[in-house]
Write a structure and sequence with these properties.
Blueprint (H helix, E strand, L loop, with lengths): L1 H4 L16 H6 L8 E4 L14 E4 L1 H11 L10 H28 L4 H12 L13 H18 L7 H12 L4 H10 L3 H7 L2 H10 L9
Antiparallel strand pairs: 1-2
Helix pairs in contact: 4-5, 4-6
Length: 218
């Protein structure tokens, strides 16, 4: 999303999390982290990464990198208070939603911590608009993950326990998270989101092929 917002000149090379080629781990991302940006160096095919390029990974550092490299994209407003609020919104997601989401999605953990984290995130939103009112890096840092959270539940992708799955479905169908769902829906209309999301069919295909996402007998 950040590269699209910046209208950067870049090449996409798809690495499936469940089927990573050897060269990716040895030459690009030793821990298998995705997404990754290779920056600088000669112009080479993506599957032949140059030793001269810098390899960067982890979503939040990559976003901050784009903020620094593409100042003309206006990922952050000039107001220092709003800049801090945008980063604080991402921090709420990172500290209160991300790990509980992974625990629920992959390891059948109770959903209460996730729902409480989502309530905390929702409480940080203004009544309308985006996280700080105007579009900012906050949306890029949070919305793709929230969109997948709602999408995976809707399409039965994830190793949820039955009780937790029902509790989440009931919570999201009620007015409890109406503001958060509206926020994600509005942010998902952004062209940069649609380009990076690719399609619902693509998301289902990826979700169904990741072994950890599959329901497993207890």
């Amino acid at each position: 999303m950040a590269l699209e917002e910046a209208r950067a000149d870049y090449i996409v090379y798809e690495i499936k999390p469940h089927d990573q080629p050897d060269w990716f781990r040895t030459k690009v991302s030793p821990l298998g982290k995705i997404p990754v940006i290779t920056f600088g160096g000669p112009d080479v095919p993506p599957d032949q990464p140059s030793a001269e390029s810098v390899k960067l990974f982890e979503s939040l550092p990559l976003l901050e990198f784009c903020v620094d490299v593409f100042p003309e994209a206006n990922f952050l407003p000039a107001d220092p208070v709003l800049r801090a609020k945008a980063r604080a919104f991402i921090a709420i997601y990172e500290n209160y939603v991300n790990n509980p989401f992974i625990d629920v999605l992959l390891y059948r953990k109770p959903v209460d911590s996730l729902l409480q984290g989502l309530e905390r995130l929702q409480a940080a939103l203004p009544p309308t608009g985006f996280a700080i009112g105007e579009w900012s890096m906050a949306e890029i840092g949070v919305v793709p993950f929230l969109a997948r959270l709602f999408f995976y539940l809707e399409h039965d992708i994830g190793n949820y326990d039955e009780e937790g799955e029902k509790k989440m479905r009931d919570a999201f169908a009620s007015t409890r998270f109406a503001r958060l769902r509206k926020y994600v829906q509005e942010a998902s209309e952004r062209p940069s989101f649609k380009t990076s999301w690719i399609s619902d069919e693509y998301q289902v295909e990826i979700g169904q092929k990741v072994p950890l996402f599959q329901r497993r007998a207890v």
